[in-house]
Each structure stands twice: as structure tokens, then as C-alpha cells.
Give the backbone structure.
Amino acid sequence: QVQLQESGPGLVKPSETLSLTCTVSGGSISSSSWSWIRQPPGKGLEWIGYIYYSGSTSYNPSLKSRVTISVDTSKNQFSLNLSSVTAADTAVYYCARGDSSGWYGYWGQGTLVTVSS
Amino acid sequence: DIQMTQSPSTLSASVGDRVTITCRASQSISSWLAWYQQKPGKAPKLLIYKASSLESGVPSRFSGSGSGTEFTLTISSLQPDDFATYYCQQCNGFPWTFGQGTKVEIK
């Protein structure tokens, strides 16, 4: 059974870079696509982007200038960097495994990241 | 971006009721639609993919239908465990987008 676990700071200062890592267990990261999705408190879901194990990526245009998703196959991990954060980036951040068509059958538990000084 | 609009935003229902949630896409997405259930403090759970395919392990009281721009999620007989928020998601065109959610409350 594939499991995903997010890790990273829960508090980030405005203008700094939010960095999160997702560790995959119970399966190899060298298959499928791997995504980040966020949910501001009390609001809906926003797709941030994905990466294939090969390294190819696709990002949400609304965040593209600030987002980088990378993969480390040796550690079975993938990561999210979001630069120049503001309070609007405060959200629960989920990592998820996408199937070939784009829906998500496996999710991490989510981690709340608050942007505040 | 493809906009996904769900209706209603909130639905009050009783155990045993038949419940239908609608999701409309701003342009045709063929059958590239998924439905998720989310409970407070938890990650979304995939219920339906490709508009009408039931994810493994999901009770058969959940069903999905539709294609093109209009889709429905139906719960044939609402159970206590089904009170949650439901989201649709399109994966026909980037960026993938979600509906705003439908909260199913106890009447």
C-alpha cells in the first residue's frame, strides 16, 4: 500500500521560500506522476503542479513563476519550493500520487503551512 | 483554465435519502472527471474516476454519470459516514481544476 508523508516547516515568513518534502513508502517513485495540491483554510482545492519520475513537470500558470517541484528517486522523495510567499499562500499542502489520467488515489495527510512574520 | 462549478454548495439531507450533486465544466472535458469525498482534517478520498468508474473499495451506493460539460455524483441511500464535502476535478486540460465543493449536512 502506497503511503505519502509531507514534511517541512509549519511557519514561513513573508517573502521567503516555502519548502516541503513528500516521502513515498510502499512503492517506487519511479512510476506515476507526483503532485502538490493545496487548500487554504475553509476553502477549496488548488492544483499546484506535478512531476514525473523522469523529471518532467507541469505547473499551474497562476503559480508557475514561483514554483519548483523536484524529485529524488534515490530517496523516494519529491519536493515543493514556493518562493516569495505571502499570507495568501497559507494553506494545507498535500502531496499526492496521480495515475496516468490525472486523478489522485493516494494522498498524504496534509501539512498546514502558515505565512506570517 | 477550465472552470468547474458545483451545485448546490450545501445540501441538507437525512440518512436514507437519495442525494445528487452536479458539476458543470466551462468547456467540454469528455469523461475526464473525478469525484472526491473530504472529511474535516482529512485528505480527499477518490470515489469516482473517468466520470463513472467506481474506485476500488468505495461502496456501490456511490455512482457517477455524465460527459462533456455536465456531470453528477449520486449517493443512492445516504449513510451517516457520508456526511462530508464532495469535490469534482477535471483532468482534461492543464491546469487541473477542482469544483468549489458541496457540503452534505445532516438535516
